[in-house]
Amino acid sequence: MTSGRQKPVLAAEDEESDAFMLGIAFERAGLTNPLVIVRDGQEAVDYLTGQGAYAERAAYPMPALVLLDLKMPRMNGLEVLTWMEDRPEFADLPAVVLSSSSDQSDIRRARAAGAQDYFVKPHSIRGLIDIVEALRTRWLSDGDQRRATGG
Amino acid sequence: MRAEDLPVQRAARGELISNLEQEVRFADGTSHWLLGNATPLQDGQGEVYGSVAAFVDITERKQVEDDLRHARDELVQLNQNLDQAVQARTARLQEMVDELQHVSYAIAHEMRAPLRAMGGFAELLDQELNALPVSADAHDYCRRIRVGAGRLDQLIRDALDYSKAVLQQPTLQPVDLSELVQGLIETYPNLHAERANITIENPLPRVVGNEALLTQCFSNLLGNAVKFVAPGGKPKVRILVSYPQSGVTRVTIEDHGIGIPLNAQSRLFGMFEKLDRRYEGTGIGLAIVRKVVERMGGKVGAESRSGNGSRFWVELNTP
User: Do B119 and A24 make contact, defined as CB atoms within 8 angstroms?
Assistant: First the structure.
């Protein structure tokens, strides 16, 4: 399967139904990168650093993209962005926010903390598919091609 | 007081005393304030041989002055106490407002997640139904769930915008309206050239305002201008600038839509005022427009163009 070769997308999302629908949108958009859902920012950090349950890199490969909700328990999206910004090893790993907030101050803060893109959660599957397609165009296909030709 | 300090004695030694206020203890033990004037008496050679003095008892006046000073001190003290009390109360109120705002944001966020789930799963269910022999009603029910969830979500967002406009103290600075409006037209698909003819008649100037509030104001006004049109028609909107008085910029948004009934014009900018059931909306948009414009020190107004659309204007300060 292609999913064996492709890097996953790591999505931190505490809202179960949002995570479920994101999976459906990936499927309908025909995105072949596997979607890995973690439940909050702390789990995203654990995944990225290969800690605890995520110790085995072969089973939990480094993602091609990190998708973050802003409001999450334990560690929120902004905290994850700041944490990533402080670590040069993640300089090439794009982080994108998918949040229900369309508040200008949230968008500004996320951008300032290092978010490469910011999407407001739509309330239709169609809208979510559009976002997933935009993610593919901006962060996944190009990047994969670049990496493929570069390597 | 010693006797030699009395004006009459000092004048007798050659000193001229004018309007000297002294507290003097009388023989009966009472204390009096005296205003004294004394002049030395001189002979032909300039030798002082005596003095003449006059006294007025000013004890009462002194008392009144004293009372006045006390009253003034007390007033100052009271004022300070009042200031402190007002400051403390304002701080408490601000704390409450902040807390309420925080709670309302949190509740709104928590409410919107299940709404997204309702809308999203109704959509998925609708698609699943396509594979089944169900009546058209089943699809219609799914649609109704989606529309209802969408409307409530919009309502929550609008209400949040409104409360933000009411509660937050905006920072005001010169904002380039031309850039802002152009940006809006590019951002909102409804305002794109394929869907609406929007003409900016004269160059939009800079105004005193707040970018976020101006965005809310003009996205609502332009959104309305292209929304309230007869079904099937392509909206035609003109944006005009005028200067009704020195220091004031008026931006008018003129549409060719359905217009506003005369009897409704006064209610237009109120909360939850919906004039036409056929058009989707929460009835908060214009209330937000009025509130944000007022927060920027401006004014709003509207007029119907006798069955030929309406004209909404916003007056803002010129930098």
Answer: no
